[in-house]
Write a structure and sequence with these properties.
With 271 residues, the chain is mainly β. It folds into two domains: 130 residues, Thrombin, subunit H, CATH 2.40.10; 94 residues, Thrombin, subunit H, CATH 2.40.10.170. 7% of the residues lie in helices and 35% in strands. It contains three helices and 16 strands. The chain has a nine-stranded mixed beta sheet. A seven-stranded antiparallel beta sheet has the order 10-16-13-14-15-12-11, with no helix packed on it. It is globular, with a radius of gyration of 25 Å.
């Protein structure tokens, strides 16, 4: 008997939930069953895990759910001490024990963690919310509105590889990093860019650079695993102005309008 037939009959069903969390190429799989479940090549480990009710809502922004589980599970390490740079997706399945078919109940991504004494609660929203969000429209303004390093017709076109610096940290003070290699980049040009590095667990982490002064950069927030001797990659930023575009030798692709009049000639003033 199929899962649909069991649900229609409302008898004989022994449903269990399967939870699969994925970050980059790594997955963590858990089930609320009392035994390990094998499904689609993954092993789902038994634990005390649950979720709030899944709503059939025409407004995806209001259809998010919460997933609760013990905070000592390995998946919880993604939010200690800081949130991950990569999105963490979650898929929830229902499996009828004794049957081979599995139903996908929910697909979404984590938007916020909340720890308490014993549990971690992950607030999620459906994947559909991301698909429904439209891109921003071009603006008529002096500043360039193109995304730095974007490629293609009408895009920025600057080569990111040509403006990437590998550096070895000589000092770390919370969100302030020091490296000799940072001093080799033109003054202030790393501001607005980013730092990225490979963590000990193999994930790539990133931070935005708020300020750059010689050999010192200031990040938007600290990273627990950065220390003296850590190797990082720094990518230069852009001030979205004409001088920054000239620095990159990219003024023919400047996305702003330098000669917008200071006065609005349709302001109703006859003078």
């Amino acid at each position: 008997m199929s899962s649909e037939a069991r649900e229609a009959a409302l008898t004989g069903a022994v449903p269990v939930k399967l939870f699969k969390f994925t970050r980059a190429a790594t997955s963590w799989c858990y089930t609320d069953a009392d035994r390990q479940i094998e499904f689609a090549g993954d092993s789902y480990l038994p634990t005390a895990i649950s979720h709030t009710g899944i709503k059939d809502n025409s407004e995806p922004n209001q259809a998010g759910i919460s997933v609760n589980f013990p905070k000592d599970l390995p998946i919880a390490d993604n939010w200690r001490q800081y949130a991950p740079s990569d999105p963490v997706s979650v898929s929830i399945f229902t499996l009828e024990l004794g049957e081979g078919d599995v139903l996908l109940d929910y697909a979404g991504r984590v938007v916020q963690p909340q720890f308490d004494n014993t549990t971690l609660t992950l607030q999620t929203e459906p994947s559909a919310t991301r698909a429904r969000r439209g891109g921003g429209q071009r603006r008529f303004q002096r500043a360039c509105d193109l995304v730095l390093y974007s490629q293609g017709p009408g895009m920025c076109g600057v080569d990111q590889a040509a403006h990437t610096t590998t550096a070895t940290l000589t000092a770390v003070d919370e969100s302030t990093l020091t490296a000799v290699e940072f001093g080799g980049v033109a003054a202030g040009r790393l501001a607005g860019g980013r730092i990225q590095w490979t963590r000990g667990d193999g994930f790539t982490d990133r931070r935005s650079i708020n300020a750059h002064d010689g050999e010192v950069v200031t990040l938007d927030y600290p990273a627990a695993d950065l220390a003296i001797g850590s190797e990082v990659t720094a990518v230069t930023g852009c001030g979205q102005d004409w001088d920054s575009c000239d620095y990159y030798g990219n003024t023919p692709r400047y996305g702003g309008e330098l000669y917008i009049p200071d006065r609005d000639y349709y302001d109703g003033n006859p003078i």
